[in-house]
Each structure stands twice: as C-alpha cells, then as structure tokens.
Amino acid sequence: MQTIALVGHGTYFDCRALFKTYAVVIALDGGYEFCKKNGVTPTVVLGDGDSIVQPPADFIKLSDQTTTDLQKGIQYIEQHYHDYQIDLFGCTSHDRLDHTLAAIQSL
C-alpha cells in the first residue's frame, strides 16, 4: 500500500521531517506555498489557483468551483493511484470553517 501526503492550505504543525517519509506528496493550491517555505518538493501541485502565489510550470489547474481543492486532490488520487492511504496535512483551518467542514465531510 502506498501512503500519499495531501497538503492543503490550512493550519500546520512542524511536519517537515515527516514529509520526507512519503514517496508521493500532493500540494493543493496554497499548500504549495507551505511546501516551498519548508523545502518540500511536491510530486504534484493542483487546485483552482486562487491561493497560490507563483504556481510551478507543471501546475494542474482545475477550475471547477463546485468542489474544494481537497476534493479535487482526492479525485486526482482516485484516478492516478491504486492501493493507497491518504494522510492529510493543513486541510483544516481556524479561520475557514467551510474548508474544515468540507474536509470532514470528504473523509
């Protein structure tokens, strides 16, 4: 089974060392900013682009506004990976209750 780190744009604890244990790190939109600041190179960066300052050249823009970036990330994993476990980082936030509730609902 492959364990995938899904990095959102929310609240974090110091998890830089932990990211090194993942073969796959998927940054969701603003989660890419967290990765850049902490020296983490994501395998994939995707989202709607509204929370990312400078997207990388290989950014996967998914413009659908009816789903959250977390939902987009889970759908991407379902389409591209098999036999996986997803660990979520930064997918809840103290100032975005709507995103926190969407994360709980997605699980």
What spatial order of strands do you see in the largest sheet? Answer: 4-3-2-1-5
Alpha-beta classification: alpha/beta
User: What global shape is seen?
Assistant: globular
Detail the poorly predicted runs: none
- The helix fraction, in percent, is 25-40%
Structure description:
It is a single chain. The chain is of the alpha/beta class and 107 residues long. It is 31% helix and 21% strand. The protein has helices spanning 16-19, 31-37, 69-80, 97-106, and strands at residues 2-7, 24-28, 44-47, 60-61, 84-89. Strands 4-3-2-1-5 form a five-stranded parallel beta sheet, sandwiched between helices. Helix 2 links the parallel strand 2 and strand 3 (44-47).
What does the secondary structure layout of this molecule look like, with pairings?
Blueprint (H helix, E strand, L loop, with lengths): L1 E6 L8 H4 L4 E5 L2 H7 L6 E4 L12 E2 L7 H12 L3 E6 L7 H10 L1
